[in-house]
Amino acid sequence: MLLPRFLTAVVGVPLVILALWWGQIPFFALFLGITLLALYEYITLAEEAGWPIYKKSGMILGGFLSVSIFLFGTKMGFNRSARPEVFFTAAAITVVIILLVIPALFRRNKEDVFQSVANTFLGIFFVSWGLSHLYLIRDLRPQGRELTFFLFLIIWAVDIGAYAGGMKFGRTKLSADVSPRKTWEGAVAGTLAGLAVAFICQAVFLPNFSPSQTTGLGLLIVVFAQFSDLSESLFKRNIGVKDSGSLLPGHGGLLDRFDSFLLTAPAYYYALVFMFPSKV
User: Fold this and answer.
1) What's the whole-model pTM score?
2) Number of domains the chain is built from
């Protein structure tokens, strides 16, 4: 199990780092692909479990929302003179709702149409909305690249620390009915590893953040990453599968590999823009 995980990381991690370093179109192209594949895994699993869901509509609208966030962000206009691009994503969300609900009226089998709409809508926002905030973090000025590295490095440290700590010291189940293999000891090890990396990042490339600010952001990422991971595990538990796919040997699917970002990326982005507007 360790060898496939290692080989996948040897290929995947440099690719992510290069795209992150370049930003703009390379970063967008890579993570649009990741987002759509992760959404495909979500929809396919739901479909195979017998959940009513709209596969084609979900994929198209999930991609549409992701592109909208890349191009226009998530700003909302509150006055009539606001430029169209300021509220484009708000309009895109409305389009997603309209194009899920209205076609349901014309489907022959109307028994589960609103359950289908709800399942599809959740997939679009759980996966596409969450992962697309990575574009916004990378586009922050003047430190978007550094702040994105901060996020990725902490999450990777949490994953590695929790895995290693759980293997070595794991005794007490963290949430046995959601993810039987996760332990409190692993969660503590992941938290300590994440915070240690946060302070290394602050010393190396984020010197304008104070130790208290670094601690706050580090804890936010650590906590949300583990909740995000558990939320994807709960989805798989409901479906009755261990992995979201088999695309990445040793890691499962892309949804498995990027599950820690689903809730964390939006939470981290809005924490930065609301709490540290002078720094971003």
Assistant:
1) 0.92
2) 1
